[in-house]
Design goal:
By secondary structure, the chain is mostly helical. The chain has one domain. It has twelve helices and no strands.
Length: 194
C-alpha cells in the first residue's frame, strides 16, 4: 500500500497517520525520541506491508503482471492500489478526497520537526502534485512511475507500467475490492491490540 492507504488505515489518530507516512522513510529501529504514537504508526505501516505482501489475493495479482514487470510487482501494486483507492475514495471514506489529501499534507507541516529528510523532500513533491489526491489521475500515476523508475538503481520497465496496469484494471479492481476490506480489518485489529 502507498501513502493514501497508510494514512487512511491509521484511522483518526494523527500520530499514527504521521508514522504511517514516515514508514517508507525510516529504516531499522525508529528513533526512540519520536512520540510513541509515531513509532506505533511506523510499526503499523510495516505490519500493513507484511500483511499485504503475503496476502494470497495480492500474490495472485502480482502473477497477472507480465514477466518484466513482475519483479517490480510490489511497487506497482502498492501504487495502483492507491490509485484505485483514490479513484473510488467516497466508497472508503466519508471525507472528500481533496479535503483528506489537504489534511495529510497539513499533518506534515504541523509535524515538520519530526520528519526524516526523505519525507521532507517528498512533501514538496506532494504539494506540487496535490498528493495523495493526485493518485486518482492516470497522468499523475504515469509521472509517479516514471519518477520511481529513475530512482531505481538498475534499468527497469517501471516507467512503462501504466499501460500494463490499465490493461489489467478490471482484475486488479476486483482484487482490491476483495482485499482492502480485509486489510482495513487487519489494521483496526492491530491498532486495538497495540
Amino acid at each position: 500500500m502507498n501513502h493514501l492507504a497508510h494514512t487512511l488505515l491509521a484511522g483518526d489518530d494523527e500520530l499514527l497517520q504521521l508514522g504511517g507516512l514516515m514508514g517508507d522513510f525510516v529504516h531499522g529501529q525508529p528513533d526512540p525520541a519520536l512520540p510513541a504514537g509515531v513509532i506505533a504508526g511506523i510499526r503499523l505501516h510495516r505490519a500493513i506491508d507484511v500483511y499485504t505482501d503475503s496476502h494470497p489475493d495480492v500474490t495472485a495479482a502480482r502473477a497477472l503482471l507480465p514477466g518484466p514487470y513482475r519483479r517490480y510487482g510490489g511497487i506497482l501494486l502498492d501504487m495502483w492500489f492507491d490509485h484505485l483507492l483514490a479513484r473510488d475514495f467516497p466508497r472508503w471514506s466519508r471525507q472528500p478526497l481533496d479535503a483528506y489529501a489537504a489534511g495529510v499534507r497539513g499533518l506534515l507541516y504541523r509535524h515538520e520537526s519530526l520528519l526524516p529528510p526523505g519525507l521532507l523532500r517528498f512533501r514538496h513533491y506532494m504539494d506540487a502534485h496535490a498528493l495523495p489526491a493526485g493518485y486518482a489521475r492516470p497522468e499523475e500515476m504515469g509521472a509517479a512511475f516514471d519518477g520511481i523508475s529513475h530512482r531505481l538503481r538498475r534499468p527497469n520497465p517501471v516507467a512503462q507500467a501504466m499501460s500494463v496496469l490499465v490493461g489489467l484494471d478490471r482484475p486488479l479492481q476486483a482484487t482490491f475490492e476483495n482485499f482492502f476490506p480485509q486489510l482495513k480489518q487487519f489494521a483496526a485489529q492491530w491498532i486495538e491490540a497495540n
